[in-house]
Protein 1
Amino acid sequence: MALSLAIRDLDAGYGAVKALRGVSLHVESGETVALLGTNGNGKSTLMKCVAGLVRPERGSLILTIDGTAHDLAKLSAEAIVDLGVAMVPEGRRLFPKLTVLENLMLGAFRKAARQNIDRNLALAFETFPALKGLQKQLAGTMSGGQQQMLAIARALMSSPRLLLIDEPSVGLSPLLVSQTISKIGELNHNLGLTVLMAEQNFNQTIRIADRGYIIVHGEIVVAADSVDELKGNDIVKRLYLGGIV
Amino acid sequence: MFSFELLLDAVVIGVLLGCFYAAVSLGLSISFGLLDVPHVAHPAFLVLASYAVYFLNEHYGVDPLLAGLLITPLFFLFGLVAYRLYYETFEKRGSDAGVRGIAFFFGIAFIIEVLIILLFGVDQRSVTADYVGKAWRLGDMRIPFRLVVAFVVAAALTILLTLYLSRTFMGRAIRAVAQDQEALRLMGANPIRIKQWAFGIATAVLGIAGALLIIVAPVEPTLDRTYIGRTFCVVVMAGLGSMSGTLVAAIILGVAEAIVLTLFGASWAPAISFAMLLGVLAVRPQGLFGRRS
Ligand SMILES: Nc1ncnc2c1ncn2[C@@H]1O[C@H](COP(=O)(O)OP(=O)(O)O)[C@@H](O)[C@H]1O
Ligand SMILES: [Mg+2]
């Protein structure tokens, strides 16, 4: 099952605010690709364009599955979920007054996902055993680490092939950040999930990323084909390793 | 004068009356409680349903409860249309839509009142059925059979809606939609369609509730005004969006009204709901069963 995402010349924004300018980026089957950038540079906007929550003004978003191309810019968020794209949004965005189990069930809202609900529920608990004992707990009453687990588990409920993860490290302690990033690495390894991850935490991200992009003011300023290339890049040194951030 | 028997009577009648209030409030518990729609036309929809039941009963001899069931699909469609209209004209425009939305629903309520007056006149209307006039004798107590019907129907509706909202995919999405619309879109659910569907269900429930309203007492075109206070009091007291909470809150209101009626007379009863509504908002705005978020 081959899958690839090719984004070309993407412009997007919110009225007068131009959040993305001429963004091109690609993700190949089985890869973990990092989208690095500090606050307000357009990472979330890019993720939302792929998920169908924000409509691009220009450019194309082509998802190719087994040789068939789908133009995501023309599809609804619902149809994009059906194609096997799931997103773990920034800030987790759980349903706080619903239980853990109810949050998971909502992850399987689409008709196609409902058929695999038992299998995916088992997979979610296998991936995050801690959630199993918390099924009846209200999501809003859980710790940040537990909430992040639930947010990722919920995304797994729709049997995704491409997982978009927006800043999983936000608000977590260093230990939990490290565990969460490792978990995402495992999902990529064990399930063959293709991952596009937006992050600010450079050192944690390069532990699992195959390659990455740096986005500044809505433009891709670095496209590196390997982690080593990322580490050696001057802009990266200035932004992340020189201590400006 | 005050006596223990009178008080007991009041409590029993109050519980039954409360169940009836629950039946007429459950729809609002969805539309206002879960969807945040300022649906002040809810009681007007209710009275409209009563007149539809009256029409079927008067002209075709249909049993009022059966008539309530028969109009349920129509009211479901009516709810779908009403929400779509509200969404396109108000909700879509953003944050201050709520306040103007109230004006929209007041307008609809007014139109419904006028329509009813044009079609049925201003006189009181009632239905005929075996159980409307009868009563059960329990010792010295006289329990009107029509309140028992209301009790049973309210309990059934509460259970059905609770199951629907907790056990079905659509039900869970309905409870989620007011919490985070964008997250719901990521689950592949369209929030507008979910809300429209939920509003349809909230309105459909009024078919049965309207039957109960006219079974319990005769109706008149402006009866909805009395029920604005009652239904909003119940839904706010319940803690927005809880079905079982709605039942309990409605019973509290029913008992309070029955006791005040016994002690001070009928003229005070309508004020109770407003007093309790203000009290709840002041002391426990999240409702008796709601959690602070
Ligand atoms: N809903 C919105 N309305 C208006 N402007 C927005 C909105 N969301 C983001 N922006 C703006 O778009 C730019 C990019 O934001 P975002 O994509 O959230 O960046 P990042 O995820 O990298 O922090 C910022 O200037 C931000 O202020
Ligand atoms: Mg962001």
Protein 2
Amino acid sequence: MLDSTFFIEKGIIILVVFAVTMLFAMYSTWAERKVAAFLQDRVGPNRAGFGGLLQPLADGLKLFSKEEFFPNTPNRFLFIVGPAIAMSTALMTSAVLPWGDKLVIFGKEVILQATDIDVALLYVFGVISVGVYGIMIGGWASNNKFSLMGAVRASSQMISYEVAMGLSIIALLMMTGTLSLKEISMQQSEWRWNVLYQPVSFLIFLICAFAETNRTPFDLAECESELIGGYHTEYSSMKMGFYLFAEYANMFISSAILAILFFGGYNYPGMQWMTENVGVNAANVLGIIALLIKICCFIFFYMWVRWTIPRFRYDQLMNLGWRILIPLAIINIMITGVCILAFK
Amino acid sequence: MSTSIQNISLSGRKKEVSNKEMTFMESLYLVAIVKGLMITIKHFFRKKVTIHYPEQTREMSPVYRGRHMLKRDEQGRENCTACGLCALSCPAEAITMKAAERKKGEEHLYREEKYAEIYEINMLRCIFCGLCEEACPKDAIYLTVSKELVPANYDREDFIFGKDKLVMPLEMAIANSKSVN
Ligand code: SF4
Ligand code: SF4
């Protein structure tokens, strides 16, 4: 049934999701500075607009007006491709996220998801692992030791933590029996949130999410004190802005995935009641709001952690990934298996 | 306890550094991280220490040396007689001036027969040591009165403060003379 309304409907959803992701990424930069300030007994940006709310615009304007600098590198093409890959992979993941169940508009059911593919979770993992190319290519094309070091660190870190991340999800998949994010959300209606059944899996996933998004305490790829700026040392202007933006977009997306996989997605207690008594649309709009609130909580948590914990040493990072998280994930899978066998 | 050189602790707070292996729970870092998070979240809700500068100013101590002020006496006349002692005493060579003779009918403006026609302090050179204040025989220059900072600016020229910025405002002199009488 590929009629034109289908394309319009999907087009609008994609546009809205894109805009929302960008908006969140933009205001995450503002929130990051505010949270950092508040955690340090300061007030943060407060001059540009009310409470500094126009600060992201001012920052963007500044980045646009900066000089485009090219280092002396034979790989000018790759130098440009790097940030582009980082940005596009950061945005691509949002295509499979379910923002709500459905809306009824003009008597037509609209699924609040750009596309409901049945291997959504695999797709997410696939795209995330491509994201490391953005950093790797950018760092390599910079023709600079510090950038290369940062890129090597980033890729080895991301590859190691992807293993633990994948394993932690397997325990969850054994329970849900599906890879579709939509179905996983639906299974968690009311209070049946996965985090209550899989706390260990959630913990491992959370730690790995920190590593995958290159956030403190795992921001070894860009640690200022050792590597200047890491992989984006040589970048300036909007190419630099793309890397920074991609990091915040990634943070938004991974918060969304955490919320969807473990914290019920768009479900909130009483959603069934709302659907029956008030209407599908109202119930689902509330659902979208619930999901966004959950995402905001996770973003806050990311920032809270960033301004609390110092950076891990590189050997600690690798130890934690390979010697602790992976065995823990495997044990978790076994226990889950035993439980499923015992209770079903 | 043996008093070998390794055991002496003058402050009484010497601690042996322990290098023991971490237990499994410790090596997960979870407990420590949660403790740290609790500390930072407490600060999130604390009162902020920031002073919103141009709108709010911090309380200065009575001897705080801020930007200079050329004083007027109780009748509103400028004290300075352009003797140049402040410029001579200034270790940073920040002060320059040009003297002029007081004309008839200007007695209400200048207290002495000679006055400073131009008086400039380069605020980028000044180190706010207060030696000019100490050197002045006429009680004319003070750093402790204005309680102001020299504001930031874009041009170096704008940091050379002339008499327009340095001389005590008339209203302040009037207020002073009232409080004296
Ligand atoms: S405060 Fe010190 S440095 Fe500044 S003008 Fe006076 S004597 Fe010179
Ligand atoms: S400020 Fe004082 S020391 Fe300096 S020229 Fe005037 S009277 Fe002399």
